[in-house]
Every structure is written in C-alpha cells, then in structure tokens.
Design brief:
53% of the residues lie in helices and 9% in strands. It has 172 residues and is mainly alpha-helical. It folds into 2 domains: 92 residues, Rossmann fold (3-Layer(aba) Sandwich), CATH 3.40.50.1820; 70 residues. Strand 2, helix 7 and strand 3 form a beta-alpha-beta unit.
C-alpha cells in the first residue's frame, strides 16, 4: 500500500519503509494457495482450526514455537477468535493483497529514502523478493532481520525499532 501511495502522490511521502513485503505481483502458485485458504475461510465463516495450523507456520521463524511459544499461541488464539462478522472484510483484504498489481516496473519512481527489511526466515515473502526490490530501487537500504519470519515485528521488535530509529534519524 505504501508503494501505491508513493506512485499516486509522491509529494506526500518523504520516505518509505517496506517490512516483509513485495511490490511485485503475487506468483500464481502462491496466489492460488492463498485464494484457496480465503475460499475456505469465507465458506466456513471462521478460520477453521486446521487452517490456523497451516497458516501459523507461514508467519513465524521455523523455531518460533520453541523460542517464542507465547507469540505463536497468542497469534493462533487471535485467529480463532475473529468474529464471524469480520470474516468478509478479512477475505476482501486478503484478495486485495494477493491480487495487487505489479509495481516493480515503476521502481525507478521510488526516488525517496527507502528502507527494505525482511525476516531471514519469512516464508510468505522471501528474502529473494527483498533483494529484487533493493536492486530495482536506487539508493534503497536492505536489512536482514535475524531469527524472524513474516511477523518480524513480534519476533524481533527491538531489532526492528533500532533499525527504524537509525533510518528515521537520517531524515531529520
């Protein structure tokens, strides 16, 4: 969403941080996988327990259940507690995210300070995708987040906050 804002209203954005994200298209294989998950959620009106068990590992580092069991448990409990009336919005948002347009062709328009951060164990957004963005966006900075998956802000909050502070200090 930040990339779209930069493209549509560049005068309103002074810097961009992309955290565990990708400005390219969603590969067909993963889009089909996620669409299938969204179809199951929509049909059930909840996030079924079996699907929670499949979704959770996509968001955390491989050893998160050992290193941060409370984070994984809390995340899974949150998914299980989503009220049925919120499911249509979640499904709609998921379809928007996975059906986003490919903005990699416009990367040369990203002329503002740009920080790209990715969990080295992110299964939903690979480190390779972050390298592709870094290569396409002149002057961008790429930071690997150690021992983190897709929800790196939970697994490595202190590391991320430190790097964000360093990045933002240079903007003032």
């Amino acid at each position: 969403m930040g990339a779209e804002l930069v493209l549509k209203a560049p005068e309103r954005v002074n810097a961009l941080v992309m955290l565990d994200s990708f400005i390219g298209f969603e590969p067909e294989v993963t889009r089909a996988k996620y669409d299938s998950m969204l179809d199951m959620i929509q049909s059930a009106g909840i996030i079924p327990p079996a699907l929670i068990s499949a979704i959770s590992p996509l968001f955390f580092a491989t050893d998160a259940t050992n290193k941060h069991p409370e984070l994984v448990t809390r995340f899974e409990q949150y998914l299980a507690s989503i009220p049925p009336e919120n499911i249509p919005t979640i499904v709609q948002l998921g379809r928007m995210i996975f059906g986003r347009r490919d903005t990699m062709d416009f990367a040369e328009q990203f002329t503002l300070p740009c920080l790209i951060m990715v969990g080295v164990e992110d299964k939903a957004r690979s480190v390779l995708e972050s390298y592709l963005m870094h290569d396409a966006i002149d002057g961008s900075e790429l930071v690997h987040i150690p021992n983190a998956g897709h929800i790196s802000t939970l697994e490595q909050a202190d590391f991320i906050n430190q790097r964000l502070n360093q990045f933002l200090k240079h903007l003032i």
